[in-house]
Amino acid sequence: LQWLSIHKAMALGAGGAWLAFGAFLLQRVVIKDHASSDSVDALPMTKPSLLFSSFFWVGLGAVLLITIQDVARKENLLANGTPVVLALAPVDPRSLMQGDFMALNFSLSQEVERLVRKQEMAYNTRQSFLAYLQPDAAGVSTLAAIQNPTDGRVLFNDQQKGGWQSASDVDLTGLIALEVTRKKGRWLPNGVDAWFFPEGQAEHFEQALYGEFKVNDKGKALLYRMLDEKAQPVAAPAEILDN
To answer: What is the reported pTM?
Structure first.
């Protein structure tokens, strides 16, 4: 789940290139055998043809298996993951809309960035770490703690002491773990920085103020839907969906 879509596409492309290279080598073997044979009837086609078929079907099966497994994991997370609602950072909606997707930023990302800079910890040497969230009465989650990936200590918001404190034995019961990933200079929930939607629905998603994620027990998350100011799902009118 931590792989970006572009990385998965590159991996599939590399797999396709490897299959093509293997097919090319096997073809050269067949041509070489044909050139060195005195008779077409004497051409030992069985072994190269079997190798080519085996190589092709095994490679195709591996690509399909990896793809299906990835889709199944994500569908399971969307169906059974813990809902987490995060507030979007204030932005100009006109600069958000680019074609059929909306660039995203989160208040959580800004708060994590402030903490990392203020505490001067070793977070900037890491690509990801766990943040712990506390849902409020309205269901919107706010940052309650972050875990130092180098020594395991937890930086938590102590309301009684009026600020952020660091300790190694913090009780995180009731909090939701969410992995934040460094991407383009920001700490984003699982690296998510965009929401894609069908063409023609841009103006309806301008009213989105929250993003709802589904999170598993390891902190991996997928963006599930966008919510309006009442924390209700943002959806286009029926006439647009019908078209």
So the answer is: 0.69
Q: What are φ and ψ of residue 241, in 5° steps?
A: -65, -35
As a whole number of angstroms, the distance between CA 141 and CA 77 comes to: 19
Q: In whole angstroms, what is the distance from residue 5 CA to residue 32 CA?
A: 41
Distances (CA, A) of 77 to 70, 80, 146, 166, 182: 11, 5, 23, 32, 22
Mean pLDDT of 96-124: 76
Type and span of the H or E element at 217: none
Mean pLDDT of 204-210: 85
| Average pLDDT value for residue range 188-206 | 82
Q: Which residues, 6 or more positions from 190, have their beta carbon under 8 angstroms from its beta carbon?
A: 1, 2, 178, 179, 180, 181, 213, 219, 220, 221, 222
CA distance 96 to 111: 21
Q: Which residue has the tokens 């995180």?
A: 172
d(CA 114, CA 111): 5
Q: Supply the pLDDT for residue 30.
A: 58
Per the CB < 8 A criterion, the answer to whether 73 and 152 are in contact is no
Please, are residues 24 and 52 in contact by the beta-carbon 8 Å criterion?
A: no
**4-54 pLDDT, tens per residue?**
566 666 777 777 777 777 777 766 665 555 555 555 454 454 555 666 667
Contacts of 22 (CB under 8 A, 6+ apart): 55, 59
The first and second tokens of residue 34, run together, are 């044909």
> Dihedral (C-alpha) 204, 205, 208, 213: value to the nearest 10 degrees?
140
Q: Answer whether residue 170 shows pLDDT above 70.
A: yes
